[in-house]
Design a protein that fits this description.
Elements: E1 2-6, E2 9-11, E3 17-24, E4 32-38, E5 45-50, E6 56-58, E7 66-71, E8 76-81, E9 90-98, E10 101-104, E11 108-112
Parallel strand pairs: 2-11
Antiparallel strand pairs: 1-3, 3-8, 4-5, 4-9, 5-6, 7-8, 9-10, 9-11
Length: about 110
């Protein structure tokens, strides 16, 4: 199983970014995906998740600003981030989960700064 994130970058406050997580080795809706982030000097935190059935959850700090799009045919899960704030800065990681199995991507940097 491979997990690859893409789409990070530098954006001004209030801007948008779309991160993509491509999972190879799991099929269709057989797995869940969790997005995490780690800000400089901080512990990694859970940001958002989508289950195999499509159920979505978000940490309170991003509710109303972040959305998850899941494409089972392409095995991708995108994290659409709008209204970005400096405190959203960090390395964003994608984790694919199925049962007790867990696979992580290498992370993608998101920097929100003017």
């Amino acid at each position: 199983v491979q997990v690859v994130e893409s789409g990070g970058g530098l954006v001004q406050p209030g801007g948008s970014l779309r991160l993509s997580c491509e999972v190879s080795g799991f099929a269709g809706n057989s797995y869940g995906v969790i997005w995490h982030r780690q800000a400089p000097g901080q512990q990694r935190e859970w940001v958002a998740s989508v289950g195999g059935t499509g159920a979505r959850k978000f940490v309170d700090s991003v509710k109303g600003r972040f959305t998850i799009y899941r494409d089972n045919a392409k095995n991708t899960v995108d994290l659409q981030m709008n209204g970005l704030k400096p405190e959203d800065t960090g390395v964003y990681y994608c984790e694919a989960v199925r049962g007790t199995l867990s696979y992580w991507g290498q992370g993608t940097q998101v920097t929100v700064s003017s």
